[in-house]
Please model this.
Amino acid sequence: MRYQTNVVLLAVALLLTACRSLGPTPDLVIEEEIPSGEAVIGEDQLEAEFEESLAPVPTEEKQSLSLAEKIGNRPTIPVFYPWSSNCGQHLWFDCDLPETPYSLIWTSAGIVPDIASTHTEVSREQQELMRSDSDTLYLINEEWHYWNLAWRTLSPDSQFYLDEIFGFHTESEYGETRVLNFQHPDWPDLLAEKAGNFQQAGFDGMMLDWWHNEAGNGRSEEAVQAARLVIAKAIRERVGEEFILMGNANWSVDDPTAQHLSGVFLELWKSDPAAEYSLTYQHENSAAWNPSVERMEDLLLYWNANLGWPKIIAFEPWKITTVDYVADRTTPKNLQYARLFTAMAVVIPDHGYILYADNNDDWDGGDHQHAYYDFFRTDFGSPTSGRIEVAGGVSYKEFENGLIAYNRTDTIVEFALPDGELVSIGPLDGLFLGEGKGQ
Model:
């Protein structure tokens, strides 16, 4: 099979298994289930379309929008989709559809099998869409500390090769992965060159998974932090400010690389899919890692204060799964949490994005499946204020045609707006009050 075909299949495989996601299946719903799979693109069609589209986009045809323009065009509730893939109706790496609009996605479409190569394979169609889409940020996901043997290659003679199994993935759904020599002095410059090439290809940024000090496979946290600092600094110096560098920090804070990052993915895993969230730090179960909503609020505040411009925060709490992981998405409890977290994602950060997702353990076929809730379509226009704190755990933000508020406490809270209007919001809930859809 020709090399171009291998690149396409690599990207599909990476999206399906190597990272943390599978694209929409019949499990993605818009309040109810959306049928999918009716237009799955086959290998032959992918090969033909890819071969026809490899030519670079002529300069005069490029329609590049700045990051500021794309962010300014985003909807009131910006929804994101990690490792977005085939939706059966649109370009095969992109799920940004009229029925399910997404304002931020990242993909593996564009990388090549050889992880030591700085080459990219981005189709003309993909380039054109990324450059012209007026309100969606497109990021590329590239490995920085491990690689998957099923989908990537690395010569044993490479200075970045280590014969070291990444222990976390042993007997997991992700298959066999090996640690990269991410402490090698040449590795930061290689990643920086990749980032620069991705930027030239039309991507708005690059996402680095496992971006925390637990990524070292037994190495000390100090050693991993030192390596991450050098990597982040090298990439930022290469791409400048007009390129998002995002790390998946999970629950981490106090990260010295924040000064070089301009985005963060808060994939807020929990050990028990059925567990609800504690209210405060005081009631957290650290042994079972049952985190609190108070901790989530502090995460959003920390990263919004410490990231570089444009401070993109992709906030992904995991839902409560007790019986049926699909039906559970729209239980009263999950609808309530979804409203709360959506409001927090919009009110606290300067540029927050939301996804209330399944637990990784809900389904062994992929991660980040979700419902597309109706209130995601709330249209109040652009924000006209920053976060306005009413009391501890209660805040709101004003928009052109309404306001969005959250209450993470366990009591009903009533507060007065500047014009004297009284607003009441229930415990552990979000409020969308205004003239647009979704109130």
Notes: The two ends are 53 Å apart (CA to CA). The chain has a mean pLDDT of 86. The chain has one domain: 3-383.
